[in-house]
């Protein structure tokens, strides 16, 4: 997968973020949702797309703000950033990619970043102590999320703003570490998602939640200590998944890897508790060639190369 060519190429503007932030200055994460959101915005306007921009964090840098990619923005790359505990509650995603009347973002690459918040429950925050970690809404498409270390967050990745936001969204999640997460890992309404060679560790509510007729190819991932790792719930229509070469191969593996299932109160709903595919993913929607790595290699090596400050290293398997 040539994500760099797909999202930015060799031209355009490169911005290096060298700021610092001491996260120990926030001893109580529950103070953050009461503060105003702090947002860096890449906004494309009608007839004036913002395009070909790379934001890369210098090694050792850290930030405490959200990044919003909005409207007709395209070919935007976010790399090597460390962002945690952002202020603003429901008014700020760590990375939010969203269409509006000016158009919808496309060709977005979120690569080798470290993002986190907290799983602490905060009085008065409702369910938005922190909002989305990486959200794609209102037509945003052709997105790659790769080699990120994503941890300690309630609602991880919303793909589709509502049940009516079911455009042909094309998103790839590959080689990410999802650790200590609540739900939406990711949530997918409509569209097509390739969920390849990720590590899902300690998922407390639900993992891949594909809904509203969406298709997910769930391939070569490693699941451990995960509740409802592949499911369809909380929407008015089910989605579909193809399960291929993950560490879990059948229900006989559930106990070995700490896989647990809880039925949903919503209707319709379906869990992958028989660990069988519900539909074949249409390969023509991928748009790229790739070589999947083994789930065992993902488990043994991915954490050493995912996230910021890893020299943009990639996973090598014997």
TrEMBL record:
Gene Ontology biological-process entries: polysaccharide catabolic process
One Pfam family, short name: Pectate_lyase_4
Domain of life where this protein originates: Bacteria
Homology family: Belongs to the polysaccharide lyase 1 family.
Protein name stated in the entry: Pectate lyase
Species of origin: Chitinimonas taiwanensis DSM 18899
One Gene Ontology term of the molecular function aspect: pectate lyase activity
Major site of localization recorded for this protein: secreted
Domain (Pectate lyase): residue spans on this chain: 25-229
GO cellular component: extracellular region
Subcellular location: Secreted
Keywords: Carbohydrate metabolism, Lyase, Polysaccharide degradation, Secreted
């Amino acid at each position: 997968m040539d994500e760099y060519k797909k999202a930015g190429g060799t031209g355009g503007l490169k911005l290096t973020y060298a700021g610092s932030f001491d996260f120990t200055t926030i001893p109580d994460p529950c103070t953050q949702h009461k503060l105003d959101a702090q947002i860096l915005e890449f906004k494309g306007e009608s007839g004036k797309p913002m395009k070909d921009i790379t934001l890369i964090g210098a090694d050792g840098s850290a930030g405490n703000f959200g990044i919003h990619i909005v409207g007709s923005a395209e070919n935007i790359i976010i790399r090597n950033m460390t962002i945690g505990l952002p202020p603003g509650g429901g008014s700020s995603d760590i990375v939010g990619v969203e269409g509006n009347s000016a158009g919808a973002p496309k060709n977005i690459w979120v690569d080798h970043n470290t993002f986190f918040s907290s799983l602490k429950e905060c009085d008065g925050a409702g369910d938005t102590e922190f909002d989305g970690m990486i959200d794609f809404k209102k037509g945003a498409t052709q997105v790659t999320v790769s080699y990120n270390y994503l941890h300690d967050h309630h609602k991880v990745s919303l793909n589709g703003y509502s049940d009516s936001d079911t455009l042909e969204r094309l998103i790839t999640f590959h080689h990410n570490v999802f650790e200590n997460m609540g739900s939406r890992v990711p949530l997918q309404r409509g569209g097509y998602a390739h969920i390849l060679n990720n590590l899902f560790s300690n998922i407390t509510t639900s993992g891949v939640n594909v809904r509203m007729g969406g298709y997910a190819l769930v391939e070569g991932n490693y699941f451990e200590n995960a509740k409802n790792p592949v499911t369809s719930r909380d929407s008015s229509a089910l989605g579909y998944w193809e399960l291929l070469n993950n560490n879990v191969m059948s229900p006989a593996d559930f106990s070995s890897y700490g896989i647990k299932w809880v039925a949903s109160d919503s209707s319709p709903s379906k869990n992958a508790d028989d660990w069988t595919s519900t539909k074949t993913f249409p390969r023509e929607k991928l748009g790229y060639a790739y070589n999947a790595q083994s789930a065992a290699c993902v488990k043994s090596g991915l954490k050493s190369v995912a996230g910021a400050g890893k020299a943009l290293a990639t996973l090598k398997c014997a």
